[in-house]
Design a protein that fits this description.
The protein contains 15 helices and twelve strands. It is an alpha+beta fold. It folds into three domains: 153 residues, Alpha-Beta Plaits (2-Layer Sandwich), CATH 3.30.70; 53 residues, DNA polymerase, domain 1, CATH 1.10.150.20; 141 residues, DNA polymerase, Y-family, little finger domain (Dna Ligase, domain 1). Strand 10 and strand 11 form a beta hairpin. The longest helix is centred in the last third of the chain and has 21 residues. The two termini are 30 Å apart. The structure holds thymidine-5'-triphosphate and magnesium ion (MG). The site of magnesium ion has 5 residues, from strand 1.
Length: 399
């Protein structure tokens, strides 16, 4: 079996990112519970916690917690609204630091990335040496701390970076993978959500070691093709390469209706929902695309795809939606039941290097709305704050 391919992978993740930036900006916040998120309005505010400092975590506050609950748990906390512009700027600088060490950088979110440093060792030293250099650069240049995992693959590096937060550095050497992995709880298994974890526990599998020792044929039976994947991960095998940002060629989202529909309101609502998901994913990856795609499958499986290329690249939900809506209006045969809709975008350029186009006031406003939404919904809060008119149709699309 081709095992881990002698790669050296780093996973870097900033500690309490937004809150650490606030503590850097306001020295009087240091060492105190700082909660970044919605306005608590003396415990009556709506919305959620984006993140909080480790001092606030001691009170049971965490990301995605309703801000009113956070206030109950930690009324003495310092509550601040997110400053998305500043966090994006620091994120950009942090990625520049990564690129000093390797071109193989795969961004995962605003504050984390995988780095393949296999080829960088001649220049900068071993994996752990590079991890220490990166941590030092970030501390000196940005005034905040990062945690790093160093391992022969992405999966192990990701687990490792989380184990000794904040300011952690955990190295998993090739010959100690199983020793490292087996005692860990299966909550650490990548790709296993709450439901899968419950299923595993019912089989008596509570640690990664339990999973590794479990018969593969039963895993296949219970989890289909994920069975083998889980089994491999439990043995520390993960050959997925680090995909540098420019490797992304298109982003798309589809929805299959539980029952075919010709209801135009419902169809457009779904297009808005899919445009929003697409825009969100673009903005998360700092990408902008020029060509917008519509996919429409009728009840009899006849499928049409149409696209339109814009003069300038975009990542705006509103802009994507306005294009797919007009493609839909031009191509949909009214009254015919639809089975599936898809929205996609390609023709990428990096949004950082994208020249600002001359937005009119309306599109600037919608861009701000998109940004605020991203900040609030980063990962968990997404469904809760979806634009009212784009609430998930019938059954929400699968991820
Ligand atoms: P995370 O890396 O998940 O969290 P963190 O950096 O705050 O803390 P940790 O030390 O555990 O890594 O997310 C990065 C940033 O993304 C976080 O600072 C704020 C934002 N975020 C949200 O806005 N909402 C969320 O629900 C989560 C998880 C993160
Ligand atoms: Mg983080």
């Amino acid at each position: 079996m081709l095992n881990n391919m002698n790669r050296v992978i780093l996973h870097v993740d900033m500690d309490a990112f937004f809150a650490s930036v606030e503590q850097r900006e306001h020295p009087e916040f240091r060492g105190k519970p700082v909660i970044v998120g919605a306005d608590p309005k003396e415990g009556k505010g709506r919305g959620v916690v984006s993140t909080c400092s480790y001092e606030a975590r001691a009170f049971g506050v965490h990301s995605a917690l309703p801000i009113s609950t956070a206030y109950q748990r930690c009324p003495q906390g310092i509550y601040v609204r997110p400053n998305g512009k500043l966090y994006s700027q620091i994120s950009k600088e942090m990625f520049q630091i990564f690129y000093e060490f390797t071109d193989a950088v795969e961004p995962l979110s605003i504050d984390e990335a995988f780095l393949d440093v296999t080829g960088s060792q001649k220049l900068f030293g071993s994996g752990p040496d590079i991890a220490r250099l990166i941590k030092k650069r970030i501390r000196e240049k940005e005034g905040i701390t990062a945690s790093v995992g160093v391992a022969p693959n992405k999966y192990l590096a990701k687990i490792a970076s989380d184990l000794e937060k904040p300011d952690g550095l955990v190295v998993v050497p090739e010959d100690r993978i199983l020793e490292f992995l087996f005692p860990l709880d299966i909550a650490r298994l990548w790709g296993a959500g709450k439901h899968t974890q419950d299923k595993l526990r019912k089989l008596g599998i509570n640690t990664i070691g339990d999973l590794a020792r479990f018969p593969l044929n039963i895993l296949n039976e219970k989890f289909g093709k994920m069975g083998k994947h889980f089994y491999n991960l439990a043995h520390g095998i993960d050959n997925r390469p680090v995909k540098a940002g420019e490797g992304v060629k298109s982003v798309s989202n589809e929805h299959t209706f539980s029952k075919d529909t010709a209801d135009q309101d419902k169809l457009k609502q779904t297009l808005l929902y899919l445009s929003d998901k697409t825009g969100y994913r673009l903005r998360k990856k700092s990408l902008k695309g020029k060509t917008i795609h519509l996919k429409l499958r009728y009840g009899n499986f006849k499928t049409i795809t149409r696209n339109k290329t814009l003069m300038s690249a975009t990542d705006s939900t509103q802009r994507i939606f306005s294009i797919v809506e007009s493609l839909f209006e031009q191509n949909y045969q009214s009254g015919r039941p639809v089975r599936l809709l898809g929205v996609g975008i390609s023709g990428f350029m990096d949004s950082a290097s994208n020249q600002l186009s001359l937005f009119d006031e309306q599109s600037e406003k919608s861009e701000k709305l998109d940004q605020v939404q991203d900040l609030l919904s980063n990962r968990f809060g997404r469904k809760i704050i979806a634009r009212a008119e784009s609430l998930p149709p019938v059954s929400p699309p699968k991820k």
